[in-house]
Every structure is written in C-alpha cells, then in structure tokens.
C-alpha cells in the first residue's frame, strides 16, 4: 500500500528542520559499550599496545559524534580532547563506586563481578561519562547516552545531576534521579527510588527542582523524595516507600511501620474487601 504523500511531506519537512544533524544513535551506543569494555571488561588482547589502539578508535569516534552535533571541527576536537583528559579522574571515581558496591553488597564477591554483572555500576559509569559531556556543554549526546543506560538497566539518571564519590546503587531498576539533584559522598540507593521534582511546570526549567542528598545517606527501595528545596541531612536513613517533600535533619531515621493484624476469616474491613 502506498504511504500518503502528505505524511511523506510532513516527515521530510520535520527532518529538514532537525537541529542536531545526522545523529547516529547506533554509533553512540557502540562508543559507550566499547569504552566500558576497554575500561572494565576482560578482553582477549589487553596488551598495552591494544589498549592504546582502542583509545585511538574511541577518540576518533567521539570526534565524529561531537562533529555532527556541533557542526564545527575545532569544537569537536576540543570536546574530544577535554573528555579524554578527564578520563583518568573519571576512572578513579568509577573504581571507588565499584569498590563501594563490593564493600557493602553481601552478594558481591569481586570487583570483576561488579564490572560484569551490576546494572547499578553500569548506570553510574554512564552517568559519570555523560555528566562530563554535559559539563562540556555538548548538545544532545549526554541525553542520548543516559537514555541508553536507562533502556538497558531501568535506571534513569539525568546527566545534569551531581553525584559525589563512592556512589552505591544496588539492583537499581526503577531509580529516577532528576536533572538538578545533588548527591554527596558515600550515598547508597536501592531500586525504585525517585529523586524528583515537586512541580513540573515549564517555568521551573532552569531552577533547582530536585532534592539534595547529603553525605552518607542510605535511601531504601521505593522511597520518593521530591523538591528542589528538600535536603536529606547527612547520615540519615530513609526507609522503603516513604514519601518526603520537606527537609530531613542530619542523622534522621524515616520509615513506615506496617501494621500487622491476624485476620478473622469471617469479615474483612471494607477497605480490604478487594484483595488482589
Ligand atoms: C525526575 C523528575 O522530577 O522529572 C520531572 C521533570 N522531567 C523534571 O525534570 O522536572
């Protein structure tokens, strides 16, 4: 069946106005995977010569990707140079993240296991490289990179967030960390945690909308912490499924207590009549 000419015209028109050039998502994902492999995964040939060759290819690809989005050779060279100059520091930070997972997850046996099998570590890796590109103000690339991690792991960390040293994510599925979130050092976060905005009106676009989490805080699964003025004080423990929209002082323990009653099979309270 012939596709309507009107639809073809509309698509053609919309693609003509594309502001990001021919952005290659497949090449971008491959670059993220290849960099991860070079930094952390076992490879048949991990000789220093081979590693140098890998980095040359990775640099050429980042140049190509940034060239497309900037449309400017000099800018693309600068972005590539800056990114790879920051890599030793990013690597050190990522090793600290992995060590923190190994230290605090009783299920983890080795750093190699963390590198091979921890979605939380992969998402943190993607966050740290995308955050570097975000700071360099490379357009669109950091968003596409973080969306790749989201699609693979279910962990959605905006590249604009700030995250300190030794960040620990366990399991991770369903975690959302918004653009203006600030997270201190040694923070631990479990699956389903949202660090989100209290208000999503468009006027808030350039304001702090997401919370601040101070050093050494632990946030257990399903907790929702909202608002740009909300600060969770250092060394607090936030229990599962709590809903927080206000400051929590340092050293707090915030939790829900489930009520347990032995059921009387003859009748249930009305609110529990429909048990799924
Ligand atoms: C994480 C979150 O709050 O998202 C809501 C909206 N996208 C925003 O950035 O404000």
UniProtKB/TrEMBL annotation:
Keywords: Acyltransferase, Amino-acid biosynthesis, Transferase. InterPro entries: LbH_SAT, Ser_AcTrfase_N_sf, Serine_acetyltransferase, Trimer_LpxA-like_sf. GO terms for molecular function: acyltransferase activity. It comes from the Bacteria. Gene3D superfamilies: Hexapeptide repeat proteins, serine acetyltransferase, domain 1. CDD domains: LbH_SAT. GO terms for biological process: amino acid biosynthetic process. NCBIfam families: EPS_EpsC. This is Serine acetyltransferase.
């Amino acid at each position: 069946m012939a596709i309507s000419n009107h639809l073809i015209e509309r698509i053609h028109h919309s693609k003509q106005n594309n502001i990001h050039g021919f952005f290659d998502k497949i090449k971008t994902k491959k670059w993220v995977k290849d960099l991860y492999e070079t930094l952390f995964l076992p490879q048949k040939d991990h000789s220093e010569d081979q590693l140098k060759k890998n980095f040359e290819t990775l640099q050429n690809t980042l140049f190509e990707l940034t060239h497309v989005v900037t449309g400017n050779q000099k800018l693309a060279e600068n972005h590539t140079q800056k990114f790879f100059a920051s890599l030793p520091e990013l690597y050190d930070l990522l090793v600290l993240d992995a060590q923190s997972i190994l230290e605090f997850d009783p299920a983890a046996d080795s750093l190699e296991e963390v590198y091979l099998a921890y979605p939380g570590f992969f998402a943190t890796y993607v966050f740290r490289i995308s955050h570097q590109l975000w700071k360099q103000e490379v357009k669109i690339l950091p968003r596409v990179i973080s969306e790749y991690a989201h699609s693979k792991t279910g962990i959605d960390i905006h590249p604009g967030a700030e995250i300190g040293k030794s960040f620990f994510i366990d399991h991770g599925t369903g975690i959302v960390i918004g653009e203006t979130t600030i997270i201190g050092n040694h923070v631990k976060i479990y699956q389903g945690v949202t660090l989100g905005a209290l208000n999503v009106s468009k006027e808030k676009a350039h304001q702090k909308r997401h919370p601040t989490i101070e050093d050494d805080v632990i946030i257990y699964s399903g907790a929702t912490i909202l608002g740009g003025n909300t600060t969770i004080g250092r060394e607090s423990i936030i229990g599962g499924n709590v809903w927080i929209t206000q400051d929590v002082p340092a050293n707090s323990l915030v939790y829900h207590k489930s009520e347990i009653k032995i059921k009387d099979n003859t009748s249930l309270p009305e609110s529990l009549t429909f048990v799924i």
